[in-house]
Amino acid sequence: MISDKSNDDGVAMNFTNKHPEFTFSWSRLCVQTRDDNKFSCAAYLRGLKSGGKSQQQRRELLVDVSGIVQPGQILAVMGASGVGKTTLLKVLSGLDDPSTLELVSGTIMVNGRVTTRNERLKSSCIGHVEQNQVFTETMTLHEHLIFQAMLRMQSLSMTDDDRRACVFETIKLLGLEKCTSTIISKLSGGERKRLAFATVALTDPSIMLIDEPTSNLDAYLAKSLMDTIRKLVR
């Protein structure tokens, strides 16, 4: 489903401006998890019958999920709470925890080529904005982005001046010029959302996966943020 509504739960964006064109697709994904931490009498009795060996319970989180994002598109993933939207985005980006989640079947492709979890995790062409981005609250916005640029751009052939220029361009792109010297703990909800976008946008990803971009924002801020997303796509 292609959507530009401001109340989308999850968004996949495919950039075309300044970026290589990628078609990002996933086919018939099935994801399960082990529910080891939940105790139940039935599981306990099954363990007794099997000589004390615990039997791990498995839950299906995603079943036969497919989708595709073409260059220049915004794809909205919508659904009720708990249906697996966050799980889908984490699996697509490679940020899923293999110790608790298992991709039982299905393929994730970039330009028709099947990718592995490690390839997606290490790739700079895929960015993931989490729903609740963690910041060092005592840093200023500018300090945070400089620090992130040093971490995220280590493998790129860039000088420190190049990284600082990239930070400046990203701040301007996200409309954060007025709060560059503001301590993160003092930022508004909308500014924190934009900072989360800026953090991921530093590496200029071709594909950006965004978990609940407008959550906890009022109508005005939600529209403003969606306008920013459309600007990034163009």
Automatic annotation (TrEMBL):
GO terms for molecular function: ATP binding; ATP hydrolysis activity; ATPase-coupled transmembrane transporter activity. It is found in: Membrane. It is a multi-pass membrane protein. Keywords: Membrane, Transmembrane, Transmembrane helix, Transport. The keyword Repeat does not apply. It holds the Pfam family ABC_tran. It comes from the Eukaryota. The keyword Transport applies. GO terms for cellular component: plasma membrane. Residues 31-233 form the ABC transporter domain. PANTHER family: ABC TRANSPORTER G FAMILY MEMBER 28, PROTEIN SCARLET. Belongs to the ABC transporter superfamily. ABCG family. Eye pigment precursor importer (TC 3.A.1.204) subfamily. This is ABC transporter domain-containing protein. It comes from Adineta steineri.
